Structures are given as structure tokens and as C-alpha cells.
Give the backbone structure.
Amino acid sequence: MSDKIFTGNVWKYGDNINTDIISPPAYMELSIKEASRYAMSPIDTNFSQKFKKGDILVAENNFGSGSSRETAPLTLREIGVYIIIAKSFARIFYRNSINIGILVLECSETHKIEDRDELEVDYLGGKIKNITKNEIYKCTKMPEHIMKIINAKGLVPFLEEHNKDREEY
Amino acid sequence: MGMTISEKILARAARLNKTKAGDIVWVKVDKAMMDDILGPRVEIAENLKKLKKDVWDRNKVVIISDHYTPPANAKQAQIVKFTRDWAREYGIDNYYEFIGPCHQIMVEKGHALPGKVLLGTDSHTCMYGAMGAFATGIGSTEMLGVLVTGEIWLKVPETIKVIWEGNLKKGVMAKDVILKTIGEVGHAGATYKAVEHVGNTIENMIMDERMCISNMAIEMGAKAGIIPADDKTKDYLLNRGINDGYEIYKSDNDAKYCDTLYFKAEELEPVVSCPNEVDNVTEIKNVEGTPIHQAYIGSCTGGRYNDLLQASNVLKGKKIAKGVRLLVSPASKEVWDKCAKDGILQILSEAGSTILAPSCGACLGLHSGALASGEVCISSTNRNFLGRMGSKDSKVYLGSPLSVAASSIEGNIVDPRKYL
Ligand code: SF4
């Protein structure tokens, strides 16, 4: 995601997509690769097949509530989710996502976005253009130092790459 | 301007005189807890090797195999083995297995102490707030950072003060208090914030009940759910042979709260939270008569000694309804032993319940009591999310152990007070 603009098509979900939905407990004994087939399955059994790399996951309020399980963003990333836009995120999920290289953006107008809309996301400028609907929404601007972690595909590769100590990030 | 408990604990851990909500501070971690399901196996073991690092202080790391114990299949057994072997490889002496959900064990074994900063790879780590600690759940990569450096950056949270005053009615438990609170705050109402539970209702609660309250802070999105430590906390620790090595903090009178909520205990009726959100709370009378297939008393939320004791008061001399199963999983081996010694397990068993190993199992549908499609369960646990206890087409109501016990007698959800 080194371009400053990310373009993709939307898969849209509602409020309170919690971690039991994203990463159902019954499949947590599997590897991330195997478990990713069941990501979101309680509400959408098709998710892992229909979501294509480059698509954008959009939801309403409180995305990722519940457990601290990093398997939630990890299984999403395995499927190719690199960007999630929601009205709000649960605290632990938000941090976990950044730590493994998923861009999480808050946008108060996600109710205007529908399945299969095409979006152009300017995450440094804090702007989302809905190409399908010809609308523009504001979203959180991701600061560049956080983008460095995301672009490195997460905190661990970031630390490896830069061989930096904590004071510098 | 005074400080809240959270601000004081985080200032201490950051080696600062003062912190205020919104500050980002680097704090020293007093204890780091990992379980089996989200412990070393997820992102940690592999990356620690890659980074060529060791854990910063093996005496400050606690590992507890609880979710997959006893294992239901070879995969789960493999995960427990991996966790056990990893603990041995890194010289972690504080390793426990098969003796109950991690949070109860952390308290029983004296790891969760007043004034400390504790982090765990499980969202209900917030439970140690009941001991007057600052404790919160983190993900695996964050834990990796903690294991390597012994530190973490945290944003000092704003605090919501929740005051409960007065006496609870007979038949109303701590579980009803916290469900009512969550119903009011909403499941995201405390996101990024700490909640401080105060007032004489809370002060009058025994430690078992306080832990039920703090355990569920995350169900409001909160970072921490703190109850000020007091003489009851000290006595509880003293009974475990701990009389120092901790600090008791109180919020200053002029500390700043972002919100204050006030509840009258006398007005509270038994409540349940309805599928599939914890804040979907209603008085139990509004769902009376809902047929159930399973009733569950257990977990780090509702499986402690007092929970089983209360349930046994309802079930003494009674039988559970035909076609219903009542599963009981004491929150730890210690709870099991005490309940056995006091005849509580016998009462529950004679009423027709099945006593299970102390484990996370049924709480999240991993083993020992998962739900089939179309089944309904009333449970003393902390989450009723879609598919939480098994099939995505099953339903979970959360209620107090009293409500769970009473409902198992009738095979329908029922107000427990008619059995008291
Ligand atoms: S008993 Fe349930 S809530 Fe508690 S740690 Fe285990 S799975 Fe989590």
C-alpha cells in the first residue's frame, strides 16, 4: 500500500461486527490460513470466497468489539483485507490491526456506502471518494509514522526492517 | 487537579509524579499473562525467535492453559502441549494448566495485586480491576513487545464513575448490577475509558462479586474496570498469605471524571441480557417463559464459590426440568475443592446437574457443552455474541447464577425469587 491512494470495491456490513463473528472460537484451533475460510462466517458464509484482494471492508459502528484475539485481524489479512473503514472501532482490535499492517479508518458516513461501491481512499489526506455515487466523505488521517508500520506490513517486520528501538516509532 | 486511580497507577508505572487522561506514557508492566488459545502460538513464539530475543523477566510472565483444557481433540491437545513446552523452554515457572480459567487463577495465585499494571492476551484481563489493579487485554503483537521490553505505551484513559448506592434486593446479584450498568452505558459506551465502580453497594460486596463486576468492563468497551481496594481486598489477600508487596490507591476527591452515573440498588430487579449483544438488557420478567435447552454456571465471570453456593440454595431438594441440562464448571480447582468439601457439588449433582472440569470450554463453545443449532442457553458467563457458545443458530441469554439455576428447574427463563 505504498501509493497514497487506495482504490477498491466495497463489501459492506453493519454495526457491532464482533470478534466472535470475525474469528469464530470453534476455528481458532486451526492455523490462520485454515481458519480464514471461516472469517465472518456467522453472518456471511461466503465472505472468504467473495472477498478479493484489493476489496475494501466497510462497516458501521463498533467494529471488532469483544475479544483481544489477534486471530481476528490476522484471518482478515490472510484473505486480503488491507483496509477497513467503519464509523468506530473497538479499542483492542484497532491496535491489533495496525500492529499487523491493516489500515483502519474511521468515517462517520459509512451508512452512505453500499456493497460493491467503488471507493478511492486518500488515507493521508483523510478523504474517501465514492466513485459509484460521486460523493466525498471525510475519514481519519493516518499519521505517517503509523503508515510506516502499516506499509512494513506490521510492527514486527517494521522493527526488523528498521532495526529501530522503541523511542523512534 | 487530583488524579483518578488509573492516573495514579499509570504515573507510578511510568515513573512520573503525575499523569492525566490523554497522556501517552510508557509504563513498566508488573505481570504479563498469556493463555493457551492466544498465547505463545499466535505471532509470539515465531517472532521472538526471528527477533532473537528472550523474555525480559521470566518471573513476571504467567502462562495458563485453560481454554483447551481438557482438550477435546488432538489439535487442542497439541496447542496445550505447545504452550507447556514453550513455557518450559523460556523458563516460565508460573505455568498452570487444567485448573480453571486464567483470570481466576491469576487472582488465586496472587499475581493480580492492588496498584499493579497487568496485561493479558485475553480481553477479560480487566477483571483484576476488582483487586484495585490497572489491568487490560492486549493482542499478540503487543504482547510480543511487552515480552521483549517489559514495557508498553498506553494512553491514560478518562474515567467514568459508576456509583451504586443502597442494598440489593433478595435474589439480585452482582451479575445483575453489572448487566444493568452495561445496559445503560452501552456496549461501546466506555471505549478507550476506564470505569470506576464505587458506592456502598460495591463496598458491601464480597470479592467474588466484585470480580464479576470488573470482569465485564470490556463489555462496555472499557480499557479497565476498577474497584478501589479496601479492607476486604486486604483480607482476601491475607487469607492467601499475602500481606505486602502491593499499593492501595484511591482517587482524589477532586479527580476529574468524564461522566458519572448513579444507580439505586433497591430499584434493581433481576435482569438478563438477550441475544446477541451484552447490552441488550431487560428485566427477567420480560422474557419469562422463554424455553431453554441448556443452563450453564461457570467461567471467570460466574463460576466462583459464591455463584455455586447461591445456585445450590435454589436447587437444594429440587430437580432440573426434563429435557434440560444444567452444566456447572467451577471457576477453578480451588473453587471445586471448596464446593465439594461444603457439600455444594453434591446438592447441584443431586438436582441433576453435570459437574464439569474447571475450564473455559463451554463459555466459548470449544468443548464440554457447545450448543446445537436452534438451542437456547441461559448462562452466567459474560458474552452472548452470535455463535459464542456453539452454533451460529443458537441463542444465549446472560443472567445471574440464581437466574440460571431457577430457569433450569422450570426449563424456561424465570425470575429466581420464587425459589428463595
Ligand atoms: S471463562 Fe470464558 S470469558 Fe473467561 S477467560 Fe475463559 S473463555 Fe474467556
